[in-house]
Amino acid sequence: MKENEELKRRVLDLANRCYQQNIYTFSGFLNAAEVSDVYTMERELDFVPWKLFGGTEGCERQMLRFGSEETLGYEEEFPISCVVIRPSAPKFAEDLSHRDFLGALMNLGIERDVLGDIIVRDAAGYVFCEDTMAAYLAEHITQVRHTSMTT
Predict the structure, then answer these.
(1) How far apart are CA 96 and CA 14, in angstroms?
(2) pTM of this prediction?
(3) Domain named Ribosome-associated protein quality control protein P2 RNA-binding: which ranges (predicted)?
(4) What's the DSSP call for residue 106?
């Protein structure tokens, strides 16, 4: 319950900052439960436009943006990048799962709220993250499980 109240306080703070300073404000990536909590706050947030987006359609983890082109006079994209992590030698790569990619990222000491969804397809991991983390990930993610990786 305490986490829920903390989320509500943080969301209202972002909404108020957007409204008072006439700037776009963004949350970190929210998990599915937090996204659900945001939807329960619709009445409290009706004074400012907001949108949820995770980098592509159907993402479970999403970032919350306050502001719109109509109210602020310009459009600002979500600060989300997609880092593609592939095996250096696909022929010798292990069969990697979402859990393997997430474990490698957590091992770098990265907070979960700067990471969005991780989509695993054809031995590659597509990691949605905040723009500020993209270069760090590209440089430091060199191995997932026992498989050498490249970005």
Answers:
(1) 37
(2) 0.90
(3) 75-149
(4) H
